[in-house]
Specification:
Layout (H helix, E strand, L loop, with lengths): L7 E5 L3 H12 L3 E6 L12 E4 L5 H10 L2 E4 L6 H10 L6 H8 L1 H10 L7 E4 L5 H8 L3 E5 L9 E4 L5 H7 L5 E5 L5 E9 L5 E3 L3 E6 L2 E7 L5 H18 L3 E9 L5 E7 L9 H4 L4 H10 L10 E9 H5 L2 H5 L4 E5 L10 E10 L6 H7 L6
Parallel strand pairs: 1-2, 1-4, 2-3
Antiparallel strand pairs: 5-8, 6-7, 6-8, 9-10, 9-11, 9-13, 11-12, 12-15, 13-14, 15-17, 16-17
Helix pairs in contact: 1-10, 2-3, 4-5
Length: about 375
């Protein structure tokens, strides 16, 4: 059953992903109700209602669920009890099982490998005694990661030499950890996949992601890679969505190896930073696709009318350029409404479009993002 215009979509989480989801919901005639502990959150600024409460506040969650027609989330680390409570009261899309898998790297890798989807080689590290066998099995260099609560490079350590093991183990928490073989990747890519209530599945083009200080800096759409690699990435994303019986939107992050092989690094069952280019380069961008899937509406093909580069605006340095960004024709600005530009904080992004098939090379991209002086 599809939600009629005027219905309310509950969004758990108050960040920019919730903000842009609420804006897409509004365009389709829906109201958004945000649940967040934050006082002045990016999402609540553009929503018709919001509940300010802790993610573990069962009474507030109950009132929230009673006030909405369907629930989705932009924040993955919701306590399991809270999610179970919401699921008893209203449809939650994507559902609790998907969230549980994506919250835990061990469950995630186990799920992927059982679905026949390759990942970097890995072993679980429960205590310090597991380190030496892991090194014997997978060698160095390696990446040691927390299984939960890691993002933007937090909760992980690069292991280059045997003496790195003990300090890395001591410093990372919560335990258990996962030991991953180091992937000497040629590129990092991602695919956004959406699956509707009726099982219709659509994938946006595979894009290349470049990071700076562990935070996404640039997304190139489409990824400058051979077509067969990009199509294989989309096929993997569809397989993940089908196996999870996804209803909603999901980002699949992958490594491209030197020989063009693909290894899945992470899945995120929500709109994703690497999908922000779709807002301007696709007739139906990732946020509209997300809301359509959650609301039970038909999903249109995830076609791209333009090539695009997305640049994140992070921290005070990037935001100091906001006036020049606004004064530069061709840059499409997106501001998240955050008052304070702390270092490393995602404050907004800009998209730059190119005719389809005309994504420039390195120098062209730098030129296209160059700012006018004010
Ligand atoms: P993650 O938190 O898993 O998304 O990792 C953050 C970043 O660390 C990735 O985007 C990669 O650049 C890098 N990274 C993570 N895992 C590996 C790995 N097994 N080998 C090489 N680089 C990695």
């Amino acid at each position: 059953m599809s939600l009629p215009p005027g219905a309310t979509i509950g969004i758990v989480g108050g960040g920019q992903l919730g903000r842009m989801s609420a804006m897409a919901a509004a365009r389709l005639g829906y109201r958004a109700h945000i649940f967040t502990p934050e006082a002045d959150s990016p999402a609540a600024q553009v929503a018709s209602a919001y509940t300010k409460a802790d993610y573990a506040d069962q009474a507030a969650l109950t009132r929230f669920a009673e006030a909405v027609d369907v629930i989705t989330f932009e924040f993955e680390n919701l306590p399991a009890d809270s999610l179970a409570l919401l699921e008893r009261l209203k449809p939650v899309r994507p559902g609790a099982r998907i969230l549980a898998i994506s919250q835990d790297r061990l469950l995630e890798k186990t799920f992927l490998n059982e679905a026949g989807i390759p990942t970097a080689p890995w072993v679980e590290v429960r205590d310090e005694a597991d380190l030496a066998p892991a090194m014997a099995k997978l060698g160095l260099p390696a990446v040691l990661k927390t299984t939960r609560l890691g993002y933007d490079g937090k909760g992980q350590a690069l292991l280059r030499a045997p003496e790195d093991l003990a300090p890395a183990f001591a410093q990372l928490s919560p335990k258990p950890l996962v030991w991953e073989g180091f992937v000497d990747f040629a590129a990092e890519i991602s695919v956004m996949v959406a699956r509707g209530v009726d099982g219709t599945t659509v994938t946006f083009d595979a894009v290349e992601n470049r990071h700076k200080n562990h935070i996404l800096d640039l997304t190139l759409a489409p990824a400058p890679l051979p077509l067969d690699v990009r199509e294989e990435a989309q096929a993997i994303a569809r397989r993940v969505a089908a196996r999870l019986e996804l209803v909603g939107l999901l980002g699949v992050e992958m490594f491209v190896t030197a020989t063009g092989g693909l290894l899945v690094n992470e899945i995120a069952p929500r709109p994703h930073n690497s999908g922000h280019w779709t807002i301007d380069a696709c007739p139906c961008g990732q946020f509209e696709m997300h809301i359509r899937a959650v609301a039970g509406l038909p999903l249109p093909p995830a076609i791209r009318h333009s090539d695009a580069v997305m640049k994140n605006l992070v921290g005070p340095e990037d935001m100091a350029q906001w006036p020049q960004i606004l004064a530069t024709p061709g840059l499409i600005p997106h501001h998240y409404g955050k008052a304070e530009a702390r270092p490393g904080r995602k404050m907004g992004h800009v998209n730059r479009l190119f005719p389809k098939g005309a994504l420039p090379g390195e120098l062209g991209i730098a030129d296209a993002l160059a700012l006018n002086e004010t």
